[in-house]
Structure formats: C-alpha cells, structure tokens
Amino acid sequence: MSSSTDDAQRRILNRLKRARGQLNAVIDAVEAGDDCRTVVTRLSAVSSALDKAGFTIISSAMRDCVADEHDGSGSAARPGDGERLTVDELEKLFLTLS
C-alpha cells in the first residue's frame, strides 16, 4: 500500500469511527429519553459523518483511478481546453457536490 493510500484509509477510518461514536450518542439519547431536538441534532451529525466518509472513499478511488490512467502523473486533462487538473483539484471539485 502506498503512503497516500495509507493516509486515505486512515482518514476514512477516522471518519467512520467518529460516526460510530456519534451513533452511540444517538442511541444513548434515545434510551435516556432525551428531547427530540437533541436526538435529531445528534442523528444529523451521524449522517454528516457517514456522508463525508463515503465521499472520502469515492474521492480516494478517483485519485487512484486518475493516477493509474495517467502514468502516475496524478493529473487529468480538462475536457475541451487541454489544461490539466491536479488530483487535488479533482477531489475538491467532487467534494463540492456534497
């Protein structure tokens, strides 16, 4: 596994563990009979953490795919203008969809 792959996996696992902790807080809040606002706020945090983990997984796959397709250069041509996007630019653009 490459260093960037290890880093991506570490970030993904951190996000998933954060989501797990937040889900435990939701369960605890429901079991304790906490008010609706508290439960929904905590549930929203879980949802957000899972979304971010999913996008990180997908962006990591995009990064690997781009690197493989372009001799390890880590960049891809922009359609129509010949200018190249860096992998970081691709990731940033993709994450704006979230």
What features would you describe in this structure?
The protein is mostly helical and 98 residues long. The protein has one domain: Metal-sensitive repressor, helix protomer (Methane Monooxygenase Hydroxylase, Chain G, domain 1, Up-down Bundle). Helices cover 73% and strands 6% of the residues. It contains three helices and two strands; from the N terminus they run ααββα. The protein has helices at residues 3-31, 36-69, 87-95; strands at 75-77, 84-86. A hairpin with a 6-residue loop joins strand 1 and strand 2 (84-86).
Strand-helix topology:
Blueprint: H1 3-31, H2 36-69, E1 75-77, E2 84-86, H3 87-95
Antiparallel strand pairs: 1-2
Major beta sheet, specifics?
2 strands, antiparallel
Number of strands: 2
Q: Tell me the distance between the termini.
A: 28 Å
Tell me the structural class.
Answer: mainly alpha
What proportion of the residues is helical, as a percent range?
over 70%
How many H/I helices?
A: 3
CATH superfamily: Metal-sensitive repressor, helix protomer
- The unreliable regions are 74-82
Range of strand content = 5-15%
CATH class: Mainly Alpha
Corresponding CATH architecture: Up-down Bundle
The rough form would be described as elongated
Task: Give the CATH topology.
Answer: Methane Monooxygenase Hydroxylase, Chain G, domain 1
Query: What is Rg?
Result: 18 Å
As laid out across the biggest beta sheet, the strand order is 1-2
Mean pLDDT: 78
Count of discrete domains: 1
N-to-C SSE string, H for helix and E for strand: HHEEH
